[in-house]
Design a protein that fits this description.
alpha+beta; 19% strand; four-stranded antiparallel beta sheet
Length: 241
């Protein structure tokens, strides 16, 4: 989950919803920089945060009983990345490669945490090389496509975590598929990106969220029940060149 504190309690966004937002953003990227396997790239974006940990015990709660933001996870685990990399293999080699590259990026710093992490990362490198060879895709082409994937993921997280800076200050998103650095700026009434990387001069994206007034929960079952009973709110952002 993505969890933001509010004056009334908590704002909760499911990570799968964040992934769908990343795909929405990616769908507007300029056509001349889209990878050849464009639909598969968007599918991988939309599903890269699926297969979350089970709703049991206190998996989704902090020690104090508050909803747990994924950034506050208590201990590193390969449960979700193993599940999602396995599931996406049913979608095809390109989507699998994008997800595998993303997991390599996210978990590379944990290589020394234990042999299971080193084995997982080594396995991803082998898979990526095998898929590139099978699809006759050069490594540079795969890296450019993943840079776009990563950019959209990062932009979605900036929005979901409400990290847009105030006073029209620029915030770096990441580099795009062409190696260019892109910055996001929040202006009155809209968001812009410099340089503008999208096909359309104006578009909107949205994500579903739940606003909770209850501050603490005894276990996952109680939190899940409250979330399911809470009306969904749409958070919308307008982008303009």
């Amino acid at each position: 989950m993505i969890v933001n504190s509010t004056q009334m309690g908590w704002e909760v966004i499911y990570q799968a919803a964040h992934a769908l937002l990343a795909a929405q953003i990616g769908a507007h990227w300029r056509a001349d920089q889209r990878p050849q396997r464009w639909i598969e790239t968007l599918v991988a974006l939309a599903q890269h945060d699926d297969e979350a940990s089970p709703w049991a015990d206190r998996n989704h709660l902090t020690d104090a009983g508050a909803p747990l933001d994924f950034r506050w996870s208590k201990a590193p685990s390969l449960a979700q990345p193993s599940l999602v990399t396995s599931e996406l293999q049913h979608k095809g080699q390109w989507a699998s490669m994008m997800i595998s590259m993303h997991m390599s990026f996210l978990y590379s710093h944990l290589r020394d945490e234990g042999p299971e992490f080193a084995a997982f990362l080594d396995e991803q490198e082998i898979h990526q090389k095998t898929w590139r060879s099978a699809m006759k895709v050069k490594k540079k082409e795969a890296e450019a496509a993943y840079a776009l994937f990563q950019w959209c993921d990062r932009m979605s997280l900036i929005l979901c975590h409400r990290e847009l800076p105030e006073a029209e200050r620029a915030l770096e998103v990441s580099v795009g598929p062409d190696g260019t650095r892109y910055d996001v700026i929040c202006r009155e009434g809209h968001i812009t990106v410099q340089p503008w990387p999208f096909e359309s001069p104006r578009f909107s994206v949205s994500v579903e969220s739940m606003q909770l007034s209850q501050l603490t929960f005894k276990d996952d079952a109680e939190l899940q029940a409250v979330l399911q009973a809470t009306p969904v709110s749409d958070l919308t952002w307008d982008f303009a060149k």
